[in-house]
Prior knowledge:
By secondary structure, this protein is mainly alpha-helical.
Amino acid sequence: MATHVPKEKKPAEGRKHQNMKNDIKASQGQWGRAWEVDWFSLASILFLLMFAPLIVYYFIMSCAQYQCSLTDPLLDLLMGNKHLSDIWNSTPTLTYRAAVIYTLWVTFQVVLYLFIPDFCHKFLPGYVGGVQEGAVTPAGVVNKYEINGLQAWIITHVLWFASTSCFHFFSPTIIFDNWIPLLWCANILGYAVSTFAMIKGYFFPTNAKDCKFTGNFFYDYMMGIEFNPRIGKWFDFKLFFNGRPGIVAWTLINLSFAAKQQELYGQVTNSMILVNVLQGIYVLDFFWNEAWYLKTIDICHDHFGWYLGWGDCVWLPYLYTLQGLYLVYHPVQLSTAHAIGILILGLLGYYIFRMTNHQKDLFRRTNGNCRIWGKKPEYIECSYTSVDGTKYYSKLMTSGFWGWARHFNYTGDLAGSLAYCLACGFEHILPYFYIIYMTILLTHRCLRDEHRCSSKYGKDWKRYTAAVPYRLLPGIF
Ligand code: NDP
């Protein structure tokens, strides 16, 4: 990271160790994800490996077979009205058509990612694209990334509109119409890429010093071994799978759901428009700030395993889009006051999310030489050590939104997430899954990040938490 300027280099410790893994562990123990697995982490991981695919299936099946009721399938099973086999037999299988659509989709995204260098930064003022540097890895490596996600999103959407509305190559409902067969394709890719990443971590890692082995197969499979697996110089697994195909698809999936509403009911409801607009802003924000994304936890600290590989291919596109799917089955038309209230909440959440992230980014980029809310930012000086023994210095801001709470960006994200759910009315719990999930995800992420920062910065982190005592909500948590 630009502000992490090495000031003092110490000789690496533990070089005499025979085993390279232990060697790295000895000097890097204070930084990055866990080296050892406690029973709680292992139990959570086994639970997720077994049940996350079933949860996704259950949600999507509930919509397709039970009008989005989460309780009716269970009641049917408990009361003996149906057997598991009845539900399974009514589920569409993998089709040749879905396999072709999905293969073309992923291949197209790979082509956009790898072969079309960014041109958006040449004419869009303020947009940062093209070749950018990521953060310093625990082994002291600084990776280069081709930031061209905004361009990929624009090209994909222009082609989508041209193909569906101008040339009528296919119907805009194509995604909804193949939703479950596409789920099987997404699962195949999710498992294939996670398994490949695991094998690659053992046999041909991109950077052996940035690998972590706990010795527990399930933990390593789930949380990943390699930090930044790559194929060739530019195909970075984390950047590709985190951003595309899942997040580029997010807005197309919502558009397809809106088109299905139009086809079924002859109109698109204001709730569907709200979900499309608010989530569209979130997606566009992600790509506009893709260079900033290189500094987030996903890229800076998470290793690439099933959690990211399968999660990006399946969990994200299928569960983040539940509101749009729900509205196909339950076309909610909101009163004007209700719709305006949701729009305000969604925009306010987005504003807090973006401004908080922007404040940290500006602060870090300028090394604190900037103005936050018209004043020079306040901060705490801190230091940490990388795997080769180099000592780095950094700063933790204690003013602006970062003075209100240690993760006010998550609070904004949660307010925006709640808005999407509220757009669906109060008839069913299913569209509220997103806010429940995001609350768990971001709270857990907050604790995980704080644990990591505490190991990384030691007593400096304690000074910081004393200066900013709350995590998400000032005065409450
Ligand atoms: P942050 O952007 O909050 O990054 C946390 C890191 O920032 C810390 O590890 C630390 O890194 C640094 N940091 C912490 N406190 C300070 C401070 N006071 N001053 C300066 N730097 C600080 O977290 P994420 O990467 O998790 O999230 C980025 C955004 O993405 C969030 O807005 C989140 O809501 C969103 N998000 C959305 C998800 C979704 O599924 N929709 C999932 C996850 C995130 P360092 O080691 O460099 O000091």
